[in-house]
Amino acid sequence: MSENAVLPGAGLASASAQAGAHPWRWSPPRDTWLIRLFDHRGFLAALCLFPAVALLLVFLTYPLGLGMWLAFTDTRIGRSGVFIGLENFESLWHDRIFWLSVTNTLLYTGVATVGKFGLGLWLALLLNDRIPFKSLIRAIVLVPWIVPTVLSAIAFWWIYDPQFSIISFMLRGAGLIDGNIDFLGTPWAARFSLIAANIWRGIPFVAISLLAGLQTISPSLYEAAMLDGATPWQRFIHVTLPMLMPVLSVVLTFSVLFTFTDFQLVYAITRGGPVNSTHLMATLAFQRGIPGGQLGEGAAIAVAMIPFLVAATLISYFGLARRKWQQGESND
Amino acid sequence: MTEAKERQGALSWDSIPRRVVTVYVPLVLFIVVLLFPFYWMAVTTFKPNNELYNYKDFNPFWVHSPTLQNVKKLLWDTDYPQWLLTTMGIATAATAISIAASVLAAYAIQRLRFRGSNWVGLSIYLAYLVPPSILFIPLAAMVFKLGLFDSPMALILTYPTFLIPFCTWLLIGYFKSIPYELEECALIDGATRLQILRRITLPLAVPGLISAGIFAFTLSWNEFIYALAFIQSSEKKTVPVAVLTQLVQGDDYQWGALMAGALFGSIPVALLYSFFVEYYVSSLTGAVKE
Predict the structure, then answer these.
(1) Which of A122, A126, B70, B115 is the most exposed place for a label (fewest CB within 10 A)?
(2) What are the residue ranges in chain B where pLDDT is below 70?
(3) CB under 8 Å to B8, separation ≥6 — which residues?
């Protein structure tokens, strides 16, 4: 920018104005080349960016590329592999456990996302109402999101205990079931138990983010809608939802991305069991790659997640963040 | 009182009983469900074994004769204090590195506004979208090659990959809220850009730095997959990994000690969070609005 060129002069001018009081003692400060170099915008920008960019290039961009390369090799832990083409993907293509993990991941992401957003939006609407102790409640609601996921997963593990499950105890007490539910013992029960735990953990983030979006909606819009005789449901569909779309699309993108690549909950609660029936792609990649030592095959599973991730991100972001909605125009 | 309330909320024409059903009951249910696992964790921690496995004679929702037996077992019979120290050390180091790198990067992107600064900003933001689940295998290969396997350095160097994008993003937003005029004044008075950063921008950004620091600390405290993949020896594990892998031996689950481990691993983060909850909520919502 042009102001930059003027600045040394401006600095001198103000300095000489200051010096007006003692003109005989003042000599203009001489910038050494070092000071001038550090004041150069381009150099300083490069210097400031260097640590962050270097760390990210070495530990993020490079591994991303390395991961794709590893997927085409037969690398094992402690032994570098050779290029074997599509062999890893071919063996995965015929691998029933891999395909099960793909469908599990899709089911997990789909159901958990719907649950999280339904309940999270509901909670956000409740919190947006006039309620006492609002900030305290807001703080409490975030707790499941703050606490290390693995540690709350361990609590869920205990809640889902086949013998001493507190849920079974309550349902038995209410007379709804006779025996204990085997939450983690059968594939379908285990899948839905995991989804429930994931929804539980995801609600706070969705609710607090959507609450922030709700608070930006001008009350006059609701007043106008009420004057026009809109029912609460119509107000929600025609005012709240369209105005919430920009925030909703960002939060949805994040949520889908991190649910799809979830690892902690499943690893902590079932470790993919019973008999590999609850593996997600991330846990399968870990099991094959690290304890199994087959880095190449693990990398191939991880790489197989990328197309799904890109598709999910594009759909949830561009599907919702359309300009029309962002500008609050009608959709016809 | 009722009248005042109704006037205050001109939007809601609901009666009180109706509000109880539509607002308060669901809200209380949400809070109970969201907090129940922690309550259950705490109750289990202080239960003696005979109560723990006997729901017939003791109401499971309450501790009848609280005991510190499980806590004692956790603190003296396992490496738990060691794990806490390791986790704190790793989280602090990773946070310090990430904040230092992010504050400089955010300053360069938001304030120096060089050619292409928007692109650098966008790519740093995109880096946050790369999930650890697809990075841990190549990173494990790198960690092995660099000889960092089973060393805390492996975690200190890899945690910034998700901390830096996040903190940079937060701090760019924070720098935007600091009036640029302050820096212009300093430039006119002849300050160098480094002096401006040190004397003007950084002091003004302290609240943003604190919130980014808390975020970074809790994120590295909670990190699991890298810590699970890169660390092997028991005494170097972080709390989340150690509780899961060291406290469960075979099929004999020590639920009391396990819950105590989970409880005390959650408390430092929860405490830190409760002190700074306002920063936390505002930076979270601010980050989403960006």
Answers:
(1) B115
(2) 1-14, 249-252, 277-290
(3) A130
Residue B152: the pLDDT is 92
Are B47 and B175 within one domain? no
Residue B279 maps to which CATH number?
Answer: 1.10.3720.10
When CB atoms are compared, the residue of A143, A250, A257 closest to B35 is A143
Q: Which 10-39 residues of chain B touch chain A by CB within 8 A?
A: 10-12, 23-24, 26-27, 30-31, 33-35, 37-38
Q: Do B226 and B199 fall into the same domain?
A: yes
**Statement to judge: residues B50 and B140 lie in one domain:** no
Answer yes or no: do A63 and B142 touch at CB < 8 A: yes
> CB B190 to CB A14 under 8 A?
yes
Query: What is the helix (H) or strand (E) element at residue B253, kind and residue range?
Result: strand B252-253
pLDDT at A202: 93
- What pLDDT does residue B249 have? 67
Closest partner residue to A222 among B11, B27, B269, by Cβ?
A: B11
In 3D, which of B101, B80, B119, B113 has the Cα closest to residue B159?
B101
Question: What distance in Å separates the CA atoms of residue A237 and residue A241, rounded to the nearest whole number?
Answer: 5
- Each as own residue / partner, the long-range contacts of residues A315-319 (CB below 8 Å, 24 or more positions apart, any chain) are A316/A249, A316/A252, A316/A253, A316/A256, A317/A249, A317/A250, A317/A252, A317/A253, A319/A249
pLDDT number for residue A224 = 92
CB neighbours of A198 closer than 8 A, spacing ≥ 6?
Answer: A108, A112, A116, A259, A262, A265
Architecture of domain A87-326: Orthogonal Bundle (1.10)
- Please say which residue of B26, B41, B67 terminates a domain: B67
Asked if A154 and B165 come within 8 Å (Cβ–Cβ), the reply is no
Give residue-wise pLDDT tens across range B97-113: 999 999 999 999 988 88
Residues B102, B59 within the same domain: no
Q: Which of residues 92-131 of B touch A (CB under 8 A)?
A: 97, 100-102, 104-105, 107-109, 112-114, 117, 120, 124, 127, 129-131
Q: Does A63 touch chain B (CB under 8 A)?
A: yes
Pair (B63, B109) in one structural domain: no
Q: Is the same domain home to B94 and B187?
A: yes
Q: Indicate where chain A has its CATH 1.10.3720.10 domain(s).
A: 87-326
Residue A53 has which token pair? 């960019």
Q: Do B262 and A7 touch (CB under 8 A)?
A: no
**Does B22 share its domain with B156?**
no
Please write the tens of the pLDDT for every residue from B2-44.
444 444 444 455 677 888 888 889 999 999 999 999 999 999 9
- Which residue range is the domain that position B196 belongs to? 73-289
